[in-house]
Amino acid sequence: EMPTLYDNIHCPPGSFKRAKDQALAGCEERNESCYGTVCLCQPCLESPTEVFIQPLTSIGDERSERCTRSAVCGETYTGRDLEFRVQDFLLREGVTVEAHLLYIDHDDLLTPQQLLASPESTNAFAYRFALTIENPGLFVLQVAINGSQVSDSPFYVKVSYPPCQTGRTRVGADCRCEEGEMQFSGKCMAVAAVLVSVAVPALLVLGLV
Q1: Which of 6, 38, 55, 100 fits a 20 to 30 Å CA distance from 19?
Q2: Is the peptide bond preceding residue 162 cis, with omega within 30 degrees of 0?
Q3: Angle CA(114)–CA(172)–CA(187) in degrees, nearest 5?
Q4: Segments in the chain forming alpha helices (H)
């Protein structure tokens, strides 16, 4: 198989090659046209650290290019996957990359959740792992290589409930109809309208209308 344009990129010292899907989307992110050809824009990123950790599927204002110690890096909704990428600049072979998740927004600490990262098929020194959290709150995420925590670890992950549909109000884990409304046929409707829609057919059946 012939090497691709991405395969032939060699980044200078102090920089690393972005994930293939990110590198290919670089020109689009910069609103630069390739005029029908294959091109790459800023496929290398500078990083003076041991590793480069970044969230790939984060939402909201907490999305960032790099995770740093004690900062919020990654935001997601309950029940939704949040994926991270770890790039090892020391180019260590055969290492184990792990992440440990701790819940800190409650009196009872969550039992640490251990996640094993998998190497990328296109980069032997880059790893990915995903986590799904069912409870809202602020979590501590620790990343370690061969049992030793990396320089940018630990950092925080923020989890919240997903937004409710228009016309519904969040009450804990539930999305409820607003005051004066009730759920009817999967929708929030005014109580008076629901009573009319139920009463009229009943009266018709009884022959009173």
Answers
A1: 100
A2: no
A3: 120
A4: 20-24, 26-29, 191-206
In whole angstroms, give the CA distance from residue 126 to residue 82.
17
Using one digit for the tens of pLDDT, what is the confidence trace for 72-98? 988 899 888 899 999 888 778 889 999
What backbone torsions phi and psi does residue 99 show, to the nearest 5 degrees? -130, 145
Which residue matches tokens 């090497």? 3
CA distance 119 to 108: 34
* pLDDT computed for residue 30 by the predictor: 78
d(CA 17, CA 123) in angstroms, rounded, equals: 9
E strands, 33-96, are 44-46, 51-55, 72-77, 81-88
**How long a stretch of residues is the chain?**
209
Burial label, 62 (beta-carbon count in 10 A; 0-12, 13-18, 19+):
middle
Q: Is the pLDDT of residue 182 over 70?
A: no
Instruction: Tell me the residue ranges of DSSP E strands in 78-199.
Output: 81-88, 97-103, 113-116, 118-119, 126-132, 137-145, 148-149, 155-160, 168-171, 174-177, 181-184, 187-190
- Tens of pLDDT, residues 103-160: 765 555 556 678 899 999 888 889 999 988 888 888 999 999 999 899 899 999 999 8
| Best-predicted range by mean pLDDT (54-68, 110-124, 145-159, 176-190) | 145-159
